[in-house]
Amino acid sequence: MLRGILFSLYYKSEQILYRCCSRQSIVCTQKPYGAQNNRNRLIFLHTRKMASSHGSRNSDEDTNTRQLLKDVNEMILKHHDKATDRTTPVVKFRTPDELASVIDFDVGSDPVNDEAIKRLCEATFEYSVHTDHPRFFNQQFSGVDKYALAGELVVAGVNSNAHTFEVAPIFVMAEKAVIKKALKVFGYEHGEGTFCPGGTYSSMLATNLARYHKFPDVKGKGIIGGPRLVMFASNQAHYSVVKNAALMGIGSDNCIKIACDNEGRMIVSELEKEIQKAKNEGAIPIFVVATAGTTVLGTFDPFNEIADICEKHGIWMHVDGCWGGSLMLSKKYKHICNGIERSDSLAWNPHKMISMPIQCSLLVTKHEGLMSKAHGLEVPYLFQPKKPYDVKYDVSRDLIQCGRRADAFKLWLAWKARGDEGFEKHVDKAMENAEYFLELVKKRDNFRLVTQQPKLTNISFWFIPPSLRNQKEDDEFWEKMHLVAPTIKTRMQKDGTMLVGYQPLESLVNFFRMIVINNRVTHEDIEFVLDEIERKGADL
Description:
- It contains 15 helices and 14 strands.
- It has helices at residues 2-21, 60-83, 96-102, 114-127, 146-158, 169-185, 199-214, 218-221, 240-247, 268-280, 303-313, 370-375, 408-443, 475-495, 523-536, and strands spanning 25-29, 44-48, 136-137, 192-196, 229-234, 255-258, 284-291, 316-320, 345-348, 361-365, 447-449, 458-463, 499-505, 508-515.
- The model is unreliable at 16-56 (pLDDT under 50).
């Protein structure tokens, strides 16, 4: 199916290239919008040859361009076929020095020919990690939606800036449609939003919206001489919260970390205690980050309780739903996010659980019109008021970004193809695979869970190697256990059989973190993970 889609896209790209190279004119005729028959609104393209048959179409450069695109398109298809073949290694691991001996990374010298460019592309595919592989469990992204991949290629082919309707009409309309849908998914009756270059950027915008909402004068006068502002997040929230505090001039010291319970959920009583403490010190709390799916343990903060406190103290509540927000697409699992609709803003990364190509991130807020007030500026050379369309579709009027990739289009195309039901099935399968893995871990004596009842597809666990079984679990035991996961990970990385991540967490020594997303993953793949860890650690 993907092969058919990509072949069709390549064929269309050749047609476009042919028209451009032949200097054909493209005349668009359109029936009036008031016409009764909607089909009359379709645009018909009429072409008229402007050059002889011996024009630039036959030039060597144009022929080479078509061949290069055709060859790279075939590489993408081969890469996809390999990535979904379990006999193919997840990665052909090479160190940085080894890669530098295979590929000349220096630029700026004499140009190379197209054959050399093709070899560089082939080497890139050969030595890259197959993140679409059903045994890639390393990160909170895996697999790629075929329709979204097609959308990604269309975006690259059109190569426009999604900042105004003037230059990106389809992309802007698609983004507006997806934002409208996302507002509904997350329970916002009204609001607005934007696509962002990653979840960190989404939360940065939310931080600025919260500050402007409380102190609108800061946009013009700045923060000098103003009150001390503080913000709050759990000690297991994403590290970008602290980065954004520093970047926004609030200061990393004024990002207060709130303790969590044994399952990784923010302790709400501690949040209120810290808010009151900040107030007593003369500071002004402006922002609380609640997490829907923490990076390591995949836990969900108690949204309703946090919302109660934020409403009580007049604080902006932001939800980092970059990872776990996708549960809102599932009728079976959305209850885990109860209370998320009470937030003021929410960040979501569809490139995570629903396998959109990276990057695909967005921010929504229920405060309609606030983005324009907080970020908008008069820019006469770009955002002219008199245009032959509603200028609200010049979306960068309300944003910090000017140069914008059309990341919304791939999600829009995939949503058109799959519908709500398709995304729901994807989420449900990932969750059910994780539940199956959880039960397998519980049945094996040489594995131990970090948390007993994970709420997302993160399954964190230790493997106890033969030499440490039935040993006293003292400091020496845990010092040795700290080395187990890195050793096994290095072995699997070099062999390329699979990839599973690991990390420590506060006082806990290194443990494996299994992430299940890819809808090609089967029960056999999940069983393979535990068997392979046992094989790789049999001599430890």
